[in-house]
Amino acid sequence: MRRRWTVTVLVLLLFTTGGVLLKRCPRTVPFEQCSELYQRYADTEGVEASFIQGYRINDSVRVDVTLLQASDSAAWQRLMKDFAIPILPPEYNELVIRNGSVSMRLFPKGHPERNMDTTLLDNDYLIYYRKMQNICIFHIDDEAQISALTKHKALEYETSIIKQ
To answer: What three-state secondary structure class fits 61?
Structure first.
């Protein structure tokens, strides 16, 4: 009887430990399944690249996201050039950074330097934060993702205004 309880407790501990480890260990996506932009910047000096597969926007919408974070001003200048982020006059740039403004736009898939494609689903959704020197690219596959992202970002913006 004692042996049976010992085995039961050990099995329960094993399952509990396994569950905790699965929950805490990060899931990684194979390099070849990551976005083209992630692959392009993964080994770029001064840029920390991340790829999130199936980022949850709301209860029913998920989207793949590439995050690019510049660790120095030279890397940020490169990202600004590569993604056609306008260079602002110094006084305006300081104001934008101080206020933590966020900018967004659409660009043709695989061509961040170009203006938005007229076919909505041929674009990706770009959000950049000058203050944090980072860029988020949401890889769009359907109109529900665009709608959910727009609502999500508008709500985030309203919430940040209220907190100020």
So the answer is: coil
> What is the pTM (predicted TM-score) of this model?
0.74
**Comparing C-alpha atoms, which of 112, 104, 144 is closest to residue 36?**
112
Q: Is 35 exposed, middle or buried (0-12, 13-18, 19+ CB in 10 A)?
A: buried
Planar angle of CA 105, 111, 115, nearest 5 degrees: 45
pLDDT value of residue 20 = 54
CA distances from 21 to 5, 11, 14, 25, 27 (A): 24, 15, 10, 6, 11
Per-block average pLDDT, block size 10, for the chain (164 residues)?
62 56 60 91 94 89 93 94 90 81 86 88 90 91 86 62 53
For 52-89, give one letter per residue: b (16+ CB within 10 A) or e. beebebeeebbbbbbbbbbeeeebbebbbebbebeeee
Residue by residue, DSSP assigns 82-149 as HTTPPPPPHHHHHHHHHHT-EEEEEEETT-TTSPPPSSGGGEEEEEEETTTTEEEEEE--SHHHHHHH
